[in-house]
Amino acid sequence: MYREVRENRRRHTNSHRQPFAGFALSLFLLLLLASCGSAQATTTTTGTQHIVKSNVPATTKMIALGAQPCPTTAASTDYWSAVVGIQREQNSIEKVSCGHLEGNDTLQALVEVDYNGASGGVKDIYVYDQVTGPAPTKILELKDLYQGDARISGYNTVITREVDWNSSVNKGQSADSVQRDLYREFKWAPGANGMLPVAFRGFYPDLTRYQAETDQQQVSKSHEQWKLDPRQVAQHMASNLLKWSGASQARILKQQGVDATVSLKNAGQDGGTITVTLSRLEGRSDGIWLVTQVDSDALLITQPTPLDHLARNFTLTGKGPTGVSGQVKVFDHLYNEIGSASTTSAGNDATTFHTPVSYTPTFDKGSEEGILALFAQKGNAIQGAVMFKALLG
To answer: What are the boundaries of the signal sequence (predicted)?
Structure first.
């Protein structure tokens, strides 16, 4: 009798619990699914410490690239005449453009000042922050750019163009015959609270971002379509910079998205193989291909590193194969050699060497972009190479 009563009570209790348990389970599953839809997390254990890491990216506000409309006040040349301190007999505000140069949702103004009122004159370039405030803050000043101009790049930097009077194409030329051959780039540096010169990673077929963006416009109009083929870009580079045969054999090792790696073999009698790394301009799917680095087996530069700012006298540390003559070269903004040194390797294997290098740039009013190279040579033929961009000056 007791067993029957207890069994009936258990059945009665379970008959009430089961609907509630089903409801609770459904509610739990709904909450779990909702949490999975809005956030995911993984737990890792380090010793006795449990670390929970969210897999959900933080909300990031997209910042528009390139020149943007200026606020009404900042678009006025009269406004900037007062800020810059224009003397109407001598100079005038030629152009004002705005962009997110500090990488956030605030706008900065690029102001061009023309001294002669003509396209061939001298210009000053300024960049200001707090563009609509009572006292805009100057974060970049470039003076006396002959035939100069500036613009906001597709990477939210300021890129400029001017004449280098002492370059190989301009030295000794009259003012009417000189070419605008020097291109520079400036990027916001929070630690410096201003804009500093930087080096564009690509170095062929264009050495600077200004040239590459101009090139991109031409290629988009169906000119020089070879710049859309990484193999052809690598072959052109080897022909022009390494003086390899135009019949160099190119093989794509990897091409994924906006990056590619090409193996290039010299078809000439002296041989030689290099690996060429390329990227599309500014990550664009239709961007031109730009060589960013060249490498070779058993040849290495450990110091400096790509995009470093090189002093005019520095020490290169590297490795090279025994018995192969090594040459360090520094090239300027026109691909001209402005510094060189020889390396020596000893021993049975690739050996580390330290080589003092000096160079003399033609531009003496600041830094410029250039190339640092280490060549393995047999006679006058380059059999191997390491090349990358650097900031010179």
So the answer is: 1-41
Identify the residue whose tokens are 């006292």: 135
**Among 387, 245, 392, 275, which Cα is nearest to 329's?**
387
Helix (H, G, I), strand (E, B) or coil at 163: coil
CA distance 168 to 5: 109
Which of 107, 316, 289, 102 is closest to 201 using CA atoms? 289
Round to the nearest angstrom and report the end-to-end CA distance of the chain. 103
Which residues does 317 contact at the CB level (< 8 Å), separation at least 6? Answer: 301, 302, 303, 352, 353, 354, 355
| Distance in angstroms (rounded) separating the CA atoms of residues 135 and 223 | 46
Tell me: the pLDDT tens digits for 247-260?
Answer: 789 999 999 999 99
Q: How confident is the model at residue 30 (pLDDT cuts 50, 70, 90)?
A: very low
Q: Which two tokens stand for residue 190?
A: 């929070």
Pair 358, 345: CB distance under 8 Å: no
Q: What percent of the chain has pLDDT over 90?
A: 69
Q: Which residues contact 318 (CB under 8 A, 6 or more apart)?
A: 299, 300, 301, 302, 303, 326, 343, 352, 353, 355, 374, 386
Residues above pLDDT 70, as percent of the chain = 81
